[in-house]
UniProtKB/TrEMBL annotation:
It comes from Micrococcus luteus. This is Serine acetyltransferase. It comes from the Bacteria. GO terms for cellular component: cytoplasm. Keywords: Acyltransferase, Amino-acid biosynthesis, Cysteine biosynthesis, Transferase. Pfam families: Hexapep (PF00132). Pathway: Amino-acid biosynthesis; L-cysteine biosynthesis; L-cysteine from L-serine: step 1/2. The lineage of its organism: Bacteria, Bacillati, Actinomycetota, Actinomycetes, Micrococcales. The keyword Acyltransferase applies.
Length: 195
């Protein structure tokens, strides 16, 4: 995919996820999450070359100062990644993020070890992480999973799950038989149902 096609895809991703996005030019000019992702792509390419690691870190820190979003240049990020209201987002060096992932503000994809190993989370395709959530360590968040606001996740989650609480507990998104939600929102209002 060419550079301009990727930029158009990124802008379309923002517009499809944020009803406040009024036009392509506005998205390109004022969406800090998009700016952080674009800068990360450049820094990540630089990070692959030993002689460019230091400039890659400098670029990531300049981007952090400009956007409030810190993405280590070593992190691996897929396509159509969207950071909504990105202030305070931190993504560690060995984090791996699949396609069609969405993070809200204040999310941390952090480590629990100082060892030079895989120490940050892996988010599979289609994961949504609510505001203020912390996902810590080399855990895997399964495809299509939603992590609730302010949850603290320190264990793997299966695909198509909802993880909420501190520490996070996991439940399936749908009932086993009919594929219906386990709880009827009209009978019980749980904020986690709206993520």
């Amino acid at each position: 995919m060419g550079l301009f096609s990727r930029i158009k895809e990124d802008i379309a991703t923002v517009r499809s996820h944020d009803p406040a996005a009024r036009g392509d030019l506005e998205v390109a000019l004022v969406y800090s999450g998009l700016h952080a992702v674009w800068a990360h792509r450049v820094a990540h390419r630089m990070w692959r070359h030993d002689r460019l690691k230091m400039p890659a870190r400098v670029l990531s820190q300049v981007t952090r100062a400009a956007t409030g979003i810190e993405i280590h240049p070593g992190a691996s990020i897929g396509r159509r990644f969207f950071i909504d209201h990105g202030m305070g987002v931190v993504i560690g060096e060995t984090a791996e993020i699949g396609d069609d992932v969405m993070l809200y503000h204040g999310v941390t994809l952090g480590g629990r070890s100082l060892a030079k190993v895989k120490r940050h989370p892996t988010l599979r395709d289609g994961v949504v992480v609510g505001a203020g959530a912390k996902i810590l360590g080399p855990v895997e968040i399964g495809e299509g999973t939603a992590v609730g606001a302010n949850a603290v996740v320190v264990k793997d989650t299966p695909a198509d799950a909802i993880a909420t609480g501190v520490p996070a507990t996991v439940r399936p998104r749908k009932g086993p038989a009919e594929g219906k939600p386990l709880v009827d929102p009209a009978e019980y209002v749980d904020p986690a149902l709206w993520i």
